[in-house]
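Notes for week 9. Today we move from apo structures to complexes. The key idea is that a small molecule is not decoration. When we ask for a structure prediction with thiamine diphosphate present, the ligand SMILES becomes part of the input, just like the chain. The input block below holds both the sequence and the ligand string. Read it once before you look at the output, and try to guess where the molecule might sit.
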Amino acid sequence: MVSEPTREQEREMYRCVVRARALDVELVRWHRQGIIPGFPPSIGHEATQIGAAAGIDATRDFVFPMYRELGIALAMGVDMLAYLGNHNSDWNGGSFDPVASHFTPIQSVVGSNGPHAVGWALGQKIDGLDGVALACIGDGGTSQGDTHEAMNFAGVWNLPVVFLVSNNQWAISVPVAKQVAGGSIAARAAGYGFPGLAVDGNDVLAVRAAVTEAVERARRGEGPTLIESKIYRRGPHATSDDPGRYRTLDDERRDAGEDPVVRYRSSVLERGVIDESFIAEVDSEAALWLEDIRTYLTTLPKRGGEELFVNVYAELTDDLVQQRAAWEESARS
Ligand SMILES: Cc1ncc(C[n+]2csc(CCOP(=O)(O)OP(=O)(O)O)c2C)c(N)n1
Ligand SMILES: [Mg+2]
């Protein structure tokens, strides 16, 4: 049985849920103001992400995110300025330190982080260490061959991996019913020889309990678990997307379910874990925190375009040599 969170832990989870939502909302605005080049908001993912972060040990375990795990990074105590500094320019460099953070750079090649997590977990096993890899995958990502290979080898080698599938019901414009045959992602775990379960991903405590149990199991050497967290992507896929082209507001009202932030606020309020003055304190601290992040992002130096051509190949291909010449030409004009 997973132990209940303490009052302090719940207050901290509430703080993170509020900050994750507030930061997401601001980041969309900052994109519209030209401060960041693009962003995939996690609106609707907050309970899953804060609950999942509460289930891991940020000093031992390692998270392999996709591009939509801002709340996990936040709740793990990742340096958010450095993390968001990457979004300002290239998403993958800057001062963000993945090793110190136990959180890899965001991964936009859908499905590729599964094998990374499995490789890291194999390393833990070979080295006799007890870290657990948390692989974050979307419903769309489960269609990728990489995800199959990752789950298969995690099962074959009995590795310490928790596959957290955030089933937000959409892969950009493709609804889950159009790419998950059989209706259950959790059920697929049976084919890989490890447990799979579905949780209400709008419930912070349910996700925390599921991830804690899966992590404990992996740490005992009992192998992987697949957790399908059922949520709804309440925002656009990314700042470049217009959901109005493939779903209506009526669809959203019908399918979105309860807002996880509102739900957790009611839950902690009703149980007396927080009161109105704590809510106000968290909100005003969040506002100051956002102002600091905005100041930091707006004062970051611009990155040089020539960085596009370094750290990819030891020697540039002919195509890239031509592209670099074209870029230099346009930069001069
Ligand atoms: C290998 C690969 N194929 C296609 C894409 C384009 N793409 C970016 S996000 C995305 C949908 C992913 O959906 P899902 O896994 O459900 O994650 P979500 O965006 O809903 O969080 C696709 C197809 C990509 N980035 N990588
Ligand atoms: Mg999805």
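The mean pLDDT is 94.
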